[in-house]
Amino acid sequence: MFKPQYPIPDTYAPATIRPAQTETAAPAPVPAGKNSALGGLAAQSPGTALALAAGGVAGVLALASVAVSLLLAVAVTAVALSISGVVVLLLVRALRQELGR
User: Fold this and answer.
1) What's the mean pLDDT in 31-47?
2) How far is CA 62 from CA 28, 39, 48, in A?
3) Residue 29 near residue 36 (C-beta atoms within 8 A)
4) 81-94 b/e with 16+ CB inside 10 Å = b?
5) In a designed cystine with 42, which of 49, 61, 84, 94 is the match (CB 3.0 to 4.6 A)?
6) pLDDT at position 39
7) What is the pLDDT of residues 48-75, one digit of tens each?
């Protein structure tokens, strides 16, 4: 009655992945003029090179905006800390003058 009953263990067997056996052959020759990465890409479709350039510009602009916003946050924090430091200094001086009388 009080004996625990454990569930039946799963009979899952993991699948084994074997690489496909391929014939060893010499690599296909690359046509002349398509040795560079962008040269072959532009020869395939002219819009692809333009899309890559636009994507690169967009990426640089995004990174630049993040960097500028981080620097602006640091500058605003520095100004706020300097102002609060001056206020605390003035308060401490005022308290010293009151207590010194």
Assistant:
1) 59
2) 40, 27, 21
3) no
4) eeeeeeeeeeeeee
5) 49
6) 54
7) 878 888 999 999 999 999 999 999 999 9
SS3 at position 12: coil
DSSP string, 23-67: ---PPPPPPTT--SHHHHHHHH-HHHHHHHHHHHHHHHHHHHHHH
**Residue 18 has what pLDDT?**
80
Q: How far, in Å, are 21, 48, 50, 75 from residue 83 at the CA level?
A: 72, 53, 49, 12
- In what helix (H) or strand (E) does residue 73 lie, and over which residues does it extend? helix 46-100
Q: At 16, is the pLDDT very low, low, confident or very high (cuts 50, 70, 90)? A: confident
